[in-house]
């Protein structure tokens, strides 16, 4: 059985949580665009665990009115988990100035195999000291490389936070100067 993750962005405005995701009318129903969606526990599980670790769980009643209305049919579903993390707490998990989760000096052949999908991860790298001891022929076999674990939380946090940034920007463009000081990501897990 698969696990589905539906993420939304809520902002604390006028003393209440408000869902700031874009909404569209379709077939006479209001549909919310999600901040992020995944249908795979193996692909997104570490990210959900990290959201819960730095934030926690929410009760259905603690959701914004918009999300409560959208997911009313799930109100009493004991198998639905609702996770939430403060956006600033998520940002603080990403080291400043670090674009990728991992970096190192790795074999060029390994980088090629990784980028082409022949291997799932880069498992071995050498230190700068080890690289310096190599002869010129040996050095040509290696390169400095930065990468993310595609199933790790780091890469998903970067993408989620980018989407949150766009949503805040869109909200402020539509509603004017309304400053958003407090924002959270909410994940409904089915």
Question: What does the model show?
Answer:
By secondary structure, the chain is an alpha+beta fold. The chain folds into two domains: 5-95 and 150-189, no CATH class; 102-147, no CATH class. It contains seven helices and ten strands. The protein has helices at residues 41-54, 65-70, 87-92, 108-115, 128-133, 136-139, 153-175, and strands at residues 5-13, 16-19, 23-26, 29-32, 36-38, 56-57, 81-86, 102-107, 142-147, 183-189. The strands form three sheets. Strands 1, 2, 5, 6, 7 and 10 form a six-stranded antiparallel β-sheet that branches. It has a two-stranded antiparallel sheet with strand order 3-4. The radius of gyration is 21 Å and the shape is elongated.
Q: What's the arrangement of secondary structure elements?
A:
Blueprint: E1 5-13, E2 16-19, E3 23-26, E4 29-32, E5 36-38, H1 41-54, E6 56-57, H2 65-70, E7 81-86, H3 87-92, E8 102-107, H4 108-115, H5 128-133, H6 136-139, E9 142-147, H7 153-175, E10 183-189
Antiparallel strand pairs: 1-2, 1-5, 1-10, 3-4, 6-7, 7-10, 8-9
Helix pairs in contact: 1-7
Residue-averaged pLDDT? 94
- How many strands in all? 10
Shape label:
elongated
Percent in strands: 25-35%
Largest sheet data: 6 strands, antiparallel
Number of domains: 2
What is the subunit organization of this protein?
A: single chain
Whole-angstrom Rg = 21 Å
Q: Ranges with pLDDT <50 over ≥5 residues? A: none
SSE sequence, one letter per element: EEEEEHEHEHEHHHEHE
